[in-house]
From TrEMBL:
This is MurR/RpiR family transcriptional regulator. It comes from Candidatus Fimiplasma intestinipullorum. GO terms for biological process: carbohydrate derivative metabolic process. It holds the Pfam family HTH_6. GO terms for molecular function: carbohydrate derivative binding; DNA binding; DNA-binding transcription factor activity. Residues 4-80 form the HTH rpiR-type domain. Transmembrane segments: none annotated.
Length: 265
């Protein structure tokens, strides 16, 4: 359901404010509930751009054409009416908002640990050291974990790739091989369903990248994911994206520890 809004927000976060793509994405977000009958020419006039700019924008955010964008706009309007309240979390009766929310966050962080979490984090740290080409991706809140990992690993002199821009993530994943290590942060393990909505990814199993997925989905079993780093989650507003951020920090700590060991030897 939230594919469209995530793509549009990612465009706002990565495009210059004076660019056509920013202007178009901003207008669509501001008028999501009123664009059902909007034509390509109508949208171009409202955004003060040429029709060709709208067509180019659609392709750059991952759609074939304007008609596919319209389908997503209609779907968003239909499904948003059925959406549950995203701000739901386990409240504490009789406590203030701050006390109740922070207590719920802390409880979720305590609850998140799984038996094999540390061993798999250490395994990933070893692979980050072995692979020259490493990339980390996530959607919206989850991408913050990828950005945090990128920043912390460079402190240990390991440079990895990530991008806020959805189209850049898709492009990168479309050109990977067995020499790549990919780390995906995805609370519900739906990242690849969103990125490759119409096709099955990594059909060539002999030349696919090595993939780790950090997720709170305890049942996901995608055949092309090599290793899951799972955590327990209530999947409410007090539990996301904090476990992903914690695990990103733990990966950085494990990698830094390996670097220190190598220096001592």
């Amino acid at each position: 359901m939230f594919n469209l809004i995530i793509i549009l927000l990612a465009t706002l976060n990565s495009e210059p404010r004076d660019s056509n793509n920013y202007r178009i994405a901003k207008y669509i977000i501001d008028h999501l509930q009123t664009l059902e009958d909007c034509t390509l020419s109508d949208l171009a006039k409202h955004c003060f751009v040429a029709n060709s700019s709208i067509s180019r924008f659609c392709r750059e955010i991952g759609f074939k054409d304007f008609n596919e964008l319209k389908i997503q706009l209609i779907r968003f309007q239909m499904e948003s009416k059925q959406a549950t309240n995203k701000f739901h979390y386990q409240t504490m009766l009789g406590r203030s908002l701050v006390d109740s929310y922070l207590t719920s966050v802390i409880e979720n962080l305590t609850y998140m640990v799984t038996p094999d979490m540390e061993s798999r984090i250490n395994q990933l740290a070893e692979d980050i050291e072995r692979y020259e080409k490493v990339a980390a991706f996530g959607y919206m809140h989850s991408e913050n974990a990828a950005l945090s990992l990128q920043y912390d690993l460079q402190t240990s002199r390991k440079i990895i790739y990530t991008s806020l821009r959805f189209a850049d993530q898709v492009d990168y994943l479309s050109h990977v091989s067995e020499s790549d290590l990919i780390i995906i942060f995805s609370d519900m393990a739906t990242y690849f369903q969103r990125v490759f909505a119409r096709v099955k990814p990594f059909k060539d199993t002999l030349h696919k990248p090595k993939i780790y997925m950090v997720t709170g989905n305890e049942h996901s079993a995608l055949e092309y994911v090599d290793t899951y780093i799972r955590y327990h989650s209530r999947h409410d507003y007090a539990s996301h994206p904090y476990p992903l951020m914690v695990i990103a920090s733990l990966i950085s700590l494990a990698y830094a520890s390996r670097c220190e060991m190598n220096v001592n030897f």
